[in-house]
């Protein structure tokens, strides 16, 4: 039972009020009464507009549904669709050419190209690992994964594999920092290094040499006493790469935060990061380990001065979108407060520790706050966020545009109006990122009544996907993001398949994207190799000369025109979707895990979050609506896959089986009930989002246990 306390007419959960008044405000020297009255004014101003924007989403979707219903049985006509979408205001006029005016952006975002991590903010250990992933051992990443084509054998160190690792790492050095003569593999004395380009040597310590290539640093560790260095001709014990330049600390898709207690945990972890004192102790392999934030790294520059490099990834925080409300705060009318407004206020408040230099370790060297804003639909919603951030800056007495924004290009109306969306936040934007998974979920939902969509695996080859990815980069460059902001690409979802990642993910920098998401610190280190192989800013200069792809392909949904799938094909598709839904939902509802490595139907571990769930649930809902499958077939698939998911989780002591009695009582098998509801209520879910049902069932599960 949540206990509320009155604060300037707001009903604030006691644990949230306690966090802010006892742990946050005192260190900032801020008056609680002034903070709460200002916060109440922000809610009074923006909550009604937030509701109106959501109502407008629903109204647009209703008109689109009616349009498709009125054209049932006729081929999809993209020209007619565009005319209609302009008539209803879904498509807006392109702004006149402009260049973003964002200033005060850290180099990691504006002038460097490299990997980005996304980490659930509820897990302190993962947060610390991600923040510390600015530097990573290439030797460890190559040795411990399948990056070389196979996995290491058990039973201790394998010298033959170690030799392959060293050979691969030195081949990389030959490419990134070539010697004036010969190869790194022939080097016998690290102090005798003479580079083809002497300017690449930028520093040293007693035990290392520091180089720079494509804006990224490479540290060669020299230690003849080390087991690896002892056998190396030049005494090289490791090659350490500057890896995750930036990390997004996520309050959204990767977490299950449904009440005040969850929000307080999230905010407290963000506070620990901004103060620099977050610490986590845990058991691993029978040992007690402690994680804390890494300090900065000092080197001696060639001229004898001190060169200090960040020891940590630059941190963004991803707030939630406009859709959800939170019981952590109730408005004067008794309704729950919009969660995104609360996030904007509290995460920015906590970031004052970094802005004012009150923390032990610095995040932003420019005094900026970096907030990623997901799931915005079109320029009106981006403009709303811009005004909200203005108000938060005024509340916290911050200069205008201290709060920077990252716009997730993951909803169809944003993709179709991307230039106008960027224009709406043109003086604070630092990031656009394609989110293929959520974007696919919204594509299916928007075209829900247009007809059955292709099989899920075939969506990636749809014309709209290529147009979406290409337009994102082209429009970002046309708006002047290069050198001022990130143009990002999405997640590599298979954390155990690093060889495949090395082969495929180089495609992201080759498109002109100066960052892309990786699922782990190890993956970030390996993905860093791609930014040495590709000069992204040179690619951006070339891409900027090309014409921007038009809207025709982007606005052509992936419909399965005239396809008649066999019964076996339908069964296979339902099984694949049902297994993914159940495998993810059971952890979300029963354990509060918002993102984890979930075995797929072939027992391959994939990083799953709400975006993948949105696709699978919307896909089945679409096929049900159009009679591709029946409700009985869907229920049969869910039951079959409940058995499979139970077997896949047999070793988890916290797991509660779903299969034996899915309909036992209202308080049992809530995860199974939630999964079923996501499918059978999928058509009416707002924009196909999964959050409303997940939150409702998670709250039931917390109350029941």
From TrEMBL:
Annotated residues for binding of acetyl-CoA: 118, 125-126, 254, 291, 519
Keyword terms of this UniProt record: Acyltransferase, Cytoplasm, Glyoxylate bypass, Magnesium, Metal-binding, Oxidation, Transferase, Tricarboxylic acid cycle
Residues that bear Cysteine sulfenic acid (-SOH): 595
EC number, UniProt record: 2.3.3.9
Residues annotated as catalytic: 318 (proton acceptor), 609 (proton donor)
Ranges of residues in domain Malate synthase C-terminal: 569-650
Location of this chain's protein in the cell: Cytoplasm
List of residues binding glyoxylate: 318, 410, 435-438
Catalytic EC class: transferase
Catalytic activity: glyoxylate + acetyl-CoA + H2O = (S)-malate + CoA + H(+)
Binding sites annotated in the UniProt record for Mg(2+): 410, 438
UniProt KW Membrane keyword: no
Domain Malate synthase TIM barrel intervals: 315-548
SUPFAM superfamilies attached to this UniProt entry: Malate synthase G
GO molecular function: magnesium ion binding; malate synthase activity
Signal sequence bounds: none
Known function: Involved in the glycolate utilization. Catalyzes the condensation and subsequent hydrolysis of acetyl-coenzyme A (acetyl-CoA) and glyoxylate to form malate and CoA.
UniProt similarity note: Belongs to the malate synthase family. GlcB subfamily.
Subunit structure: Monomer.
NCBIfam families, per the entry: malate_syn_G, PRK02999.1
Name recorded for this polypeptide: Malate synthase G
Organism: Brevundimonas aurantiaca
Gene that encodes it: glcB
């Amino acid at each position: 039972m949540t206990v509320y306390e009155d604060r300037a007419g707001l009903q604030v959960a006691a644990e949230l009020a306690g966090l802010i008044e006892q742990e946050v405000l005192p260190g900032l020297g801020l008056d609680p009464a002034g903070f709460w009255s200002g916060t109440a004014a922000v809610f009074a101003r923006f909550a009604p507009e937030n509701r109106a924007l959501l109502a407008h989403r629903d109204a647009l979707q209703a008109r689109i549904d009616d349009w498709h219903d009125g054209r049932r049985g006729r081929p999809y006509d993209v020209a007619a669709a565009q005319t209609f979408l302009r008539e209803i205001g879904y498509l807006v006029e392109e702004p006149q050419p402009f260049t973003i005016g964002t200033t005060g952006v850290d180099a990691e975002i504006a002038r460097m190209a490299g990997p980005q991590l996304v980490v659930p903010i509820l897990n302190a250990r993962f947060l610390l690992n991600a923040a510390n992933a600015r530097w990573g051992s290439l030797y460890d990443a190559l040795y411990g994964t399948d990056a070389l084509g196979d996995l290491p054998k058990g039973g201790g160190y394998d010298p033959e594999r170690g030799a392959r690792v060293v050979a691969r790492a030195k081949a990389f050095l030959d490419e990134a920092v070539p010697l004036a003569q010969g190869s790194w593999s022939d080097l016998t004395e690290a102090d005798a290094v003479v580079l083809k380009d002497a300017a690449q040597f930028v520093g040293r310590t007693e035990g290392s040499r520091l180089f720079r290539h494509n804006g990224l640093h490479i540290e060669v560790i020299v230690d003849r006493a080390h087991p690896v260095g002892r056998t190396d001709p030049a005494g090289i014990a490791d090659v350490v790469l500057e890896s995750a330049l930036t990390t997004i600390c996520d309050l959204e898709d990767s977490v299950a935060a449904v009440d005040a207690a969850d929000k307080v945990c999230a905010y407290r972890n963000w506070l620990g990061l901004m103060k620099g004192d977050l610490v986590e102790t845990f058991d691993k392999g029978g040992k007690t380990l402690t994680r804390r934030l890494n300090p900065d790294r000092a080197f001696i520059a060639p001229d004898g001065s001190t060169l200090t490099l960040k020891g940590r990834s630059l941190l963004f925080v991803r707030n939630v979108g406009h859709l959800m409300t939170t019981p952590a705060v109730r408005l004067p009318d008794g309704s729950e407060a919009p969660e995104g407004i609360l996030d904007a206020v509290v995460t920015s408040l906590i970031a004052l520790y970094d802005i004012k230099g009150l923390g032990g370790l610095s995040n932003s060297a420019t005094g900026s706050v970096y907030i990623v804003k997901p799931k915005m639909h079109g320029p009106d919603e981006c403009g709303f966020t811009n005004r909200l951030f203005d108000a938060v800056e005024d509340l916290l007495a911050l200069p205008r545009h201290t709060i920077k924004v990252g716009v997730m290009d993951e909803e169809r109306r944003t993709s179709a109006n991307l230039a106008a969306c960027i224009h709406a936040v043109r003086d604070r934007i630092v990031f656009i990122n394609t989110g293929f998974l959520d974007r696919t979920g919204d594509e299916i939902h928007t075209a829900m009544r247009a007809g059955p969509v292709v099989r899920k695996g075939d969506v990636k080859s749809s014309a709209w996907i290529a147009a979406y990815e290409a337009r994102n980069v082209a429009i970002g460059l046309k708006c002047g993001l290069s050198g001022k902001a990130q143009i990002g690409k999405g997640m590599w979802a298979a954390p155990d398949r690093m060889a495949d990642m090395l082969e495929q993910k180089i495609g992201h920098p080759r498109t002109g994207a100066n960052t892309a998401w990786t699922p782990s610190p190890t993956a970030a280190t390996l993905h860093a190799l791609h930014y040495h192989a590709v000069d992204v800013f040179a690619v951006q200069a070339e891409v900027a000369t090309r014409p921007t792809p038009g809207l025709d392909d982007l606005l052509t949904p992936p419909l399965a025109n005239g396809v008649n799938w066999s019964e076996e094909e339908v069964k296979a598709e339902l099984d694949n979707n049902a297994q993914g839904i159940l495998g993810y939902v059971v952890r979300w509802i029963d354990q509060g895990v918002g993102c984890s490595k979930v075995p797929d139907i072939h027992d391959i571990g994939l990083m799953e979050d709400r975006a993948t769930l949105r696709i699978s649930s919307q896909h089945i809902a679409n096929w049900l609506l159009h009679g591709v499958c029946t409700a009985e077939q869907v229920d049969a698939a869910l039951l079959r896959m409940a058995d499979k998911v139970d077997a896949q989780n047999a070793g988890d002591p916290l797991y509660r089986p779903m299969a034996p009695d899915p309909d036992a009582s209202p308080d049992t098998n809530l995860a199974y009930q939630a999964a079923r509801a996501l499918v059978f209520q999928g058509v009416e879910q707002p924009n196909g989002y999964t959050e409303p049902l997940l939150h409702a069932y998670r709250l039931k599960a917390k109350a029941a246990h």
